[in-house]
Amino acid sequence: MSFDLILRNIGRVVQLTEEEQKEFCSLLTIRHVKKKQLLVKPGEISLHENFINKGCFRNYIIDREGTERNFYFAIEGWWISDIHSRTFNVPSFAYVYAVEDSELVQILQTDLDNIMMKFPKLEHFFRLTYQKSTASIQFQLLQRLYLSAEEQYLSFRTKYPEFDRRIPQKHIATYLGFTPEFFNTVRTKILKQI
């Protein structure tokens, strides 16, 4: 089992001792997820925080009209779960879906809570991770209010070039709040200018 990537990810923020690393890693498991497999679906409680060793995921809901609405993508070195379900121990409204064959490092929420209490460095790391995630979501919402469609797509492309290559365009469209047809028009216009 390889926990090198998750330890490097944590090490960018806090330095764990060898003993802290060992204890943290004793709580981790590796899970392989096939492309198109659901990690979480509505009605289930999300019990794990998941670090992506390899692969790509998306979080989405299905709205009242039956349309998929993507609200989060994640690739190697990122975290994925239904944070609302996991935090409040309630059934999920959302799907967590593998876009590619993937490998996750999982930790149960209860184990995560306990290890953060024991090692404040880990609590610091996860607090900063969640703050950055919340800030990113807030920025995404603000962009929808203030930027034109072209500016939104350019910002997405600049900030997440890997997503633009790995995520199907129809999913990027709903992430940006566009219909696939409108997204295709915007994307074509932007690509002609580049």
From TrEMBL:
Q: Which organism is it from?
A: Mucilaginibacter gilvus
Matches recorded under InterPro entries = cNMP-bd_dom, cNMP-bd_dom_sf, RmlC-like_jellyroll
Family annotation (Gene3D superfamilies) = Jelly Rolls
Q: Which domain of life is it from?
A: Bacteria
Q: What is this protein called?
A: Crp/Fnr family transcriptional regulator
